[in-house]
Amino acid sequence: MVSRRNFLIGGAAVPFLSYLELAETAFAATPKDILVVAQQLDNMTSLDPHEGFEAVGGEMISNMYQKLVRANSDNPDTVLPVIAASWEADADNKVFTFKLADAKFASGAAVTADDVAFSLQRAIKMNKSPAFIINQFGFTAENVEARIVAKDEKTVTLTTEAPTAISFLLFCLSANIGAIVEKKTVLENEVNGDLGNAWLQKNSAGSGPFKLQAWKASESIALALNEHGPYKGNLKRVIIRHVVDPSSQMLMLQKGDVDIARDLTSEQLKALQSDENVTLVRKQIASLVLISLNQNNANLAKPQVWQAVKWALDYEGMQKNIVPLTHVVHQSMEPTGFPGTVTETPFKQDIEKAKALMAEAGLADGFDITLDHYAAQPYPDLAQAIQANLGAIGIRVKLQSAENRQVLTKMRARGHEMALSAWGTDYFDPNSNAEVFCINKDNSDDAKKKPFAWRSSFKNDELTGKAEAARDEKDPAKRLELYEALQREFMENSPFAIMFQTTKTAACRKNVSGVTIGVLSEGNTYLETSKS
Questions:
Q1: Rounded Cα distance, 500 and 331, in Å
Q2: What is the widest separation between alpha-carbon atoms in the chain?
Q3: Most buried one in 36, 163, 237, 325, CB count within 10 A?
Q4: Residue 477: which of 88, 87, 77 has the closest Cα?
Q5: In angstroms, what CA-CA distances link 301 with 293, 296, 487?
Q6: SS3 state at 404
Q7: Strand pairing category for 260-261 and 395-402
Q8: In whole angstroms, what is the distance from residue 369 CA to residue 396 CA?
Q9: What is the pTM of this model?
Q10: Are strands 34-39 and 260-261 parallel, antiparallel or unpaired?
Q11: Distance CA 250, CA 272 (A)
Q12: Which of 308, 293, 286 is nearest to 422 (CA)?
């Protein structure tokens, strides 16, 4: 049997424990100054904030690093100051000046403008997966040192290539790609010009509430308090254990072996709703469940079929009976919680209307089609419901189940006909989703840019123009108005049936308070968490 001490000592010293071993181990209550979390950790590749781009990794990064600004969970139209105390744009909306607040790295050194400039320059020079979020403003490895400049110890300027809406820039800088690292520490660990990348993948150099103590892939992560950081609670450490099975997570939570369970399904959450020892912290996150219709298929290329599919689906029935506590009905390409999101749900199941649209398309007798979907729940159950709904209007669906990566690989190669999948938003601005769903300028198979719309061969020049106009609008209020109009047009005139938005839940023991779940994973934080 694993000792209590070994379980709590952290990733560096704990041997691998399967979820079964953990579930069978009886521990006393966890110490008041150590938070123990059961969570699936198998999608992380790097904890370098300028490289890591997975959901769980993004969460860990946000607990170790700060940005100039952060998203405002209470008011998604604004951002909140963090390392930046204030900011302003020049008359041309091209030069943006940031004045810095006081902050310290885990080393105890003050965060300076030189650290800020170095960090943003580093993100551009490394050019890893998330770099597009800020290089879209015209920054390149060749010009970034001239365009991102530390003017003095407390002042940084960013000069964009073209006039830019300050709200757009700020939302992009609130993403983890905008994390500030300690220049001195990072460069001390540089190898062969990698800007400290290899070292920072499994170490930390930030000013966030915690610092990395150890990470063992698909086993555990141990975070230790940054004594110089912004955390003011009673926690000294946060230990996150990789526990795959949701039922085991729930059992460990109920026994007091862990303080928080992060990956429970509707089945477990129903059981916990009446458990007086557990508090459920819930948040709609920026992840959409949708059906994509590939325009390479002649039947699916008919706009009437797009509409027929949307009117055939029983959104409310699926939500109520399959995903009542993990998803809500949502039909806009922008997730709830983002600036300017349209929350209307115009499509309801209307079989007769859907049949009429099929007849108008010349397909009254229907057609045969294959629907690819993820093998993990709830996708198989949703796929069966979709199969029944579409069957009622003559669309005979063959279901094809595969692992998440296999479905995505097939979609990226344009090999699907219909696909049931999920889309997670990259950064906290409506352009993040509008760009991938609406802006597809080159629909050829060898296009350099292959956004989500490209995967289903969808190109609409009118939508592209409106998405670009909304992106480039300088007036913040007018910009959101343009995005609202764009969302409504996309709902009616696109081959994507957006069905649900995911709700994430942190199931916490009663003595745990202050856990925050964000719309994006980087908003998940233990900054205000404490134990009694």
A1: 7
A2: 72
A3: 36
A4: 77
A5: 8, 7, 20
A6: helix
A7: unpaired
A8: 6
A9: 0.84
A10: parallel
A11: 8
A12: 286
Return d(Cα 297, Cα 456) in angstroms, integer.
10
Separation of alpha carbons 137 and 172, rounded Å:
10
Contact between residue 206 and residue 102 where contact means Cβ atoms under 8 Å apart: no
How far is the C-alpha of 119 from the C-alpha of 36, rounded, in Å? Answer: 31
**Omega within 30 of 0 (cis) for the link into 378:** yes
**Number of helical H runs and strand E runs in the chain:** 20, 19
Distance from CA of residue 131 to its chain's centroid?
15
Quick one: the chain helix, strand, coil %, rounded to 5?
35, 20, 45
Place of tokens 């049931």: 420
How far apart CA 83 and CA 97 sit, in angstroms, is 13
**Could you tell me whether strands 155-159 and 148-152 are parallel, antiparallel, or unpaired per DSSP bridges?**
antiparallel
- Determine the Cα–Cα distance for residues 45 and 37; give it in Å rounded to an integer: 20
Q: Which two tokens stand for residue 175?
A: 């993403």
Strand partners, 513: 530
Residue with tokens 């027929």: 308
**Contact (CB, 8 A) for 278 and 264:** no
Q: How many CA atoms lie less than 13 Å away from 474 in the CB half-sphere?
A: 9
Q: List the pLDDT tens digit at each of the 532 positions of the chain.
A: 333 334 333 333 333 333 334 333 444 578 999 999 999 887 788 999 999 988 889 999 999 999 999 988 778 778 999 999 999 999 999 999 999 999 999 999 999 999 999 999 999 999 998 999 999 999 999 999 999 999 999 999 999 999 998 999 999 999 999 999 999 999 999 999 999 999 999 999 999 999 999 999 889 999 999 999 999 999 999 999 999 889 999 999 999 999 999 999 898 999 999 999 999 999 999 999 999 999 999 999 999 999 999 999 999 999 999 999 999 999 999 999 888 999 999 999 999 999 999 999 999 999 999 999 998 889 999 999 999 999 999 999 999 999 888 999 999 999 999 999 999 998 889 999 999 999 999 999 999 889 999 999 999 999 999 999 999 998 889 999 999 999 999 999 999 999 999 999 999 999 999 999 999 888 999 999 999 9
Residue with token string 């041309």: 92
Gap between the Cα atoms of 299 and 395, Å rounded: 10
Helix (H) / strand (E) element for 269: namely: helix 266-272
**Tokens 């003559």 belong to residue:** 394
Find where tokens 């129903």 sit: 270
C-alpha dihedral sign at 368, 371, 377, 382: negative
Rounded to an integer, what distance in angstroms lies between the CA atom of residue 84 and that of residue 80?
9
Q: How far is CA 477 from the centre of its chain?
A: 25
**27 neighbors 12 (Cβ within 8 angstroms):** no
What H or E segment, with its residue span, contains residue 412? helix 404-412
Strands (E), 375-495: 395-402, 418-424
